[in-house]
Amino acid sequence: MQFVLTKKEGNLAWIILNKAEKLNALDSKLIEEIWESVEQYEEDSETRVLIFTGSGKAFSAGADITEFTKLSPIDAWKFAKKGRGLMDKIENLSKPTIAMINGYALGGGLELALSCDLRVAAIEAQLGLPEINLGIYPGFGGTQRLTRLVGKSKALEIMMTGDRITASDAEKMGLVNKVVPLSSLEEETRNLALKLAEKSPVILALLKEVVLRGNDSPILSGLSMESLGWSTAFSTQDKNEGVSAFLQKRKPQFKGS
Ligand SMILES: CCCCC/C=C/C(=O)SCCNC(=O)CCNC(=O)[C@H](O)C(C)(C)COP(=O)(O)OP(=O)(O)OC[C@H]1O[C@@H](n2cnc3c(N)ncnc32)[C@H](O)[C@@H]1OP(=O)(O)O
Fold first, then answer.
1. From the CB of residue 166, how many other CB atoms can be counted at a distance below 10 Å?
2. Which UniProt keywords apply (predicted)?
């Protein structure tokens, strides 16, 4: 890999965008390498949580604008599909994902963070969808994911003005889950990831499926999926382990079966 660093820490996998001199701008190569890293950890049964972050002063400043000059409309469609495909893949991973936003998360960079389950940001981070200033609009899923997350009015404000927002404002509108000083960002993110890694992976996967599919469905369908998934939990060893551990006043050891 040229532009992505990966590292494993027990049950945690880190995927680090590593093109700091270009603020981790997402070009075709970087998108392919993130895709490969995601596939690698998706298949790795030891990995329970994936953390995405960037090296240097940015999480990612978005799609690589220099590539836009040579794109025909058909190329642009292919590029948007490729980037969006990656975001869809990340969103639909059965394992929990966290975006550790260390600095700028703009355009496609914010869209990458939006495709993760949770977002922890440094106080210093700046977020936004500035595509409107380039005469385009978000094309890696942001129009849909941001709107579902913060509501139509706030999402339109962010996309129509292109203004950058602070991590604290992002937290207030529910766009990020937690804001911490940059100096403790890694530790706080790791602690959150370790907490998730202790839960049952099979139940987390079921929960994700019900929440994601339910979010796209009328409430009655979502509620029905919830009941079906909930009863499926009763076929797992992890449910037996969780209930037994409570009754025996000990910590559960979930194995993912
Ligand atoms: C068809 C597919 C649809 C895709 C949907 C997504 C679209 C997008 O994401 S469009 C891009 C949206 N992002 C932006 O508009 C942000 C662009 N960057 C900036 O505004 C600034 O770089 C900054 C405010 C984030 C930081 O400013 P500053 O601290 O002054 O740093 P520099 O501008 O000097 O940046 C350093 C270096 O990085 C290059 N760079 C930054 N962002 C991008 C980018 N998105 N694409 C390509 N290159 C980028 C910048 O040009 C500098 O390079 P050098 O000049 O060679 O040093």
1. 15
2. Lyase
pLDDT score, position 168: 98
> Does 210 lie in the same domain as 159?
no
Question: Is residue 94 pLDDT above 90, yes or no?
Answer: yes
157: domain CATH number is: 3.90.226.10
Q: Is 91 part of a structural domain of the chain?
A: yes
Q: Are 193 and 231 members of one domain? A: no
- The mean per-residue pLDDT over the stretch 236-246 comes to 97
- Which residues are known catalytic residues? 111, 131
| 70 pLDDT higher than 90 | no
| Residue 142 Cβ contacting ligand 1 at under 6 Å | no
State the average pLDDT over residues 241-246.
Answer: 98
Q: How far is the CA of 48 from the centre of ligand 1 (A)?
A: 32
| Residue among 19, 14, 15 at smallest CA distance from 3 | 19
Say which residues have a Cβ less than 8 Å from residue 243's Cβ, sequence separation at least 6.
none
Task: Compute the average pLDDT of residues 239-253.
Answer: 97
Q: Is the pTM of this model over 0.90?
A: yes
Mean pLDDT of 216-237: 96
Q: Which residue range(s) make up the domain with 217? A: 201-247
* Residue 63, ligand 1, Cβ within 6 A: yes
The residue behind tokens 């995927």 is 15
Residue with tokens 């025996």: 248
Domain at 227, CATH number: 1.10.12
Same domain, 56 and 72: yes
Question: How many whole angstroms from 62 Cα to the centroid of ligand 1?
Answer: 7
pLDDT surpassing 90 at residue 160: yes
**Is 255 contained in some domain?**
no
Q: How many domains does the chain have?
A: 2
